[in-house]
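If you are new to this repository, start here. Below is one unmodified record pulled from the training split, so you can see the exact layout before writing a loader.
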Amino acid sequence: MPQTLYDSAFLDKNYVTNYYNVYKFDEDHYLITTDHAAWVVLSKEEYDLLRLERVEEDPNLYRSLKEVGIILTNDNIKDVIKLYAERNHFLFRGPSLHIVVPTLRCNQKCIYCHSSVEPSNAKGYDMDEETAKAIVDFIFKSPTKTLCIEFQGGDCLLNFSIVEFIIDYAKDVAKKKKKKVVFNLVTNLTLMNEDIVKSLSKRKIMGISTSLDGPKHIHDKTRKYLNGRGSYDDVVYWIKRIKDEWKYHFNLNALCTVTKYSLPYVKEMVDEYISLGFNRIFLRPLNNIGFAKKTWNKIGYTPEEYLVFWKEGIEYIIKQNVEGKEIHEFMSVIFLKKILQKYDPLFVDIQSPCGAGIGQLLYTYNGDIHTCDEGKIFPEFKLGNVKTSRYTDIFKNKTLISMIDISSRQNYLCDNCPWNPYCGICPIYTYAAQGSVVSKLSMDDKCKIYKEIIRTLFQKLIFSRDDRKILLEWVKKDTILT
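And here is the target side for that same chain:
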């Protein structure tokens, strides 16, 4: 009988056990996970057969473990390799998200902002057309077929003529290159006006993202104008107008950043989003970076405090679903898609390796290229400039290569964590919080938060039929992520 490439691995049995990690929920429920994100729940008896490598004694168990790739045979090993490659498909396509900062100027000074913003009347911080054209030309060197250009700031509406120029020029280049390009715009909305919204509608941008930290008494504490006045009324005015008058033109989304002020009010925050017609809320934990680092003792919290808030929020959102209201929590959907689907959903902040370079690049007003959104405030994470750097230079940059390596979770603690296949780390956050891109995981707040969120979602999927039904609906309905 002719031998296959893999015969040497199966000398004593007709299978070998794939590398796996285990989490014990209780005495008769053991969660098994693998690096290609397969998972299964076993009884104590089944788990004993697996760990003792005697699964062939239970034909049903053998078939189940073979089907998901927890045991490997000559019949399934190529399929498991393919699944692993598909899971990491983003490694082979080039950066698709390109964040452009037309200006560093902003009319607000939010207490947690991680951008290096300048006052709205500052000079010398706006992108010109020459730089904008060079950025677009550089973006289209990415090998990926579909590109997303996202405008950030500062607030990009303070240099809106360049936003229009980039959209128009990028569409022309896309037509010549036979590529697809879509556009997102991130703005605090307070600078929006009739002319701008009509221009965006005419140019058919895909989405507008804004920030709403909750009801007025929360939002106005965290997101203030330069004169100290809260911005809630102006933001909500434009949220309502866009949803009422242009709801078929734009996909309008908002996110909230959770500060210490938010912790007692998660129900009120969810109610606020529902009342404004949003069908999702992103209960985003605060990053200890930028302005937030200076005021952490005032606005920050422990991972444990955040998790109490998040769990209360999840239970309340599920309760709203039971009562017929359509809303879901976005961070939960990110992790659920990682758990339930074979492809990674490409949320670059929770990805391994992280999105720096392989998923996204950021271009500042002067053409400097940075690893990512968070990386723009640190000169250490500058990769080059569109006017002087070749495309290949950026991807040979030692900083970028190190970022990819460090965020691949190839270390002892991550390698032995059952939540590893569904997690993702941000070296920039680690650098800001710990002074090094190499995380001391026992001190890593994001690690603690993500592990408990993933564990909680698995618990609901496994043990609560009612919750599982709702969570599966969230995954089906949220189409923002692939």
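Two things worth knowing about this chain: Confidence is low (pLDDT under 50) at residues 1-5. The CA atoms of residues 21 and 418 lie 5 Å apart.
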